[in-house]
Amino acid sequence: MTAVALASVLALTATACGDDGSDGKPSAVSSRDGKITIPDDLKQRLKEHGIDIDKWKHGAWKNWNRDDWLREANDFVNPIIKGLWDSDRMRDADDPDRGVDDSDISGDQGVTDPTPQPVQARAVTPPYHTSAATSGKLLFDAPGGTMVCSATVVTDPAHPGKSNLVWTAGHCVHAGKKGGWYRNLAFVPSYNDQGRSAAELEGASRSEIAPYGVWWADAAKTSQQWISKGGETGGDGASYDFAVIHVTPEQGSGGKSLEETVGGALPVNFDAPAVSQVRSITASGYPAAAPYDGQRLYQCQDKPSRLSIEQSDPTMYRIGCTMTGGASGGGWVETGADGKPALVSNTSIGPVRSGWLAGPRLGEVAKSVYESVSKQFAGR
Asked: Compositional bias of type Basic and acidic residues: which residue ranges (predicted)?
């Protein structure tokens, strides 16, 4: 209980104010020489709720710096800050660059297929809710600033027809081996549903940009492989670069789940089919790096090939596609033998100059991540 309370306080203040209160407002938690200090009045308020931070682990928190604490905390902490994601902040979010140089891909198992020809991304016809209701944007704050990825509403076995689960890339929720969990994660389904240009969105209301609301992550999980190996660039950890988040509406949804609100959710296929068995994959996302501006939804459709990053890791799917950063985390969908669409991967990496995208093949590790988030909210 104390651990969660302290982590919540730190997560809130990481966004709310400067480390030293330099914004002119009193800082709830300040940091001097990288160490955490907590004002006496805040300690007293916590004590009134039965939480004595000084007694917890004999006050060991005094020797930790804030970034280490947030990285080492086992629980993902993401308190809702109402109104934080206003229309300007959503529109101006940048992409977390995951561009790789082809020469960085050095762990080939001898099974990597030739580089696919680029497939020009096509703009999805608005309103997006009509043809791509499960797609949306994932917004978050990272050390480098306000960032954006893409994400997909997926089914929840614990709540059939009433899912609040969203699928994205691991690097869209956690920085990997040199960082921790990102802050203020929020999902916006059917972002900019009418497909307006950046110029047309100037001065647009929040409801125009987010017609189905802003949904905050109250749980997130990625693979331990991504946390241990994931890097800012290159292919480290890419074969396990996936994540599942559970969301809750910022303003309330009248009791409706995310799936009920948007009108659908995609099942996830964890029995990753071999490339030879897949006729076509469609990848969706909001590319934000040039020549795109992150405001519109795009898709690429191509027959996948194989990409091997490390000999010890599973091969990845790779398709030709001109989408750029910002499309990361977007769902890859295949029509199965039953004729129904299912999510089979997500955008993880692509080359510096675009032209192709690669995503992990989903197997037992991905299934365990998915099921653990589902079970966390089963019965609620």
From this structure: 87-101
Cβ density class 23-52: b for 16+ within 10 Å, e for less:
eeeebbbbbeeeebebeeeeeeebeeeebe
Confidence of residue 333 (pLDDT cuts 50, 70, 90): very high
Q: What SS3 state is found at 363?
A: coil
Output 18-26 pairs: Cβ under 8 A, ≥24 positions apart: 19/66
Task: Please state, in angstroms and rounded to a whole number, the distance separating the CA atoms of residues 299 and 323.
Answer: 8
**295: pLDDT strictly greater than 90:** yes
Q: Is the pTM of this model over 0.90?
A: no
Return all residues near 60 (Cβ < 8 A) that are at least 6 apart. none
d(CA 51, CA 2): 6
Q: Which of 23-27, 92-96, 286-290, 357-361 has the lowest mean pLDDT?
A: 23-27
Rounded CA-CA distance 286/7 in Å is 32
Name residues whose C-beta falls within 8 Å of residue 202's C-beta, 6 or more positions apart in sequence.
Answer: none
| Tokens describing residue 40 | 């006496």
- N-term to C-term CA, the chain: 20
Instruction: Please identify which residue in the block is written with the tokens 């969105």.
Output: 201
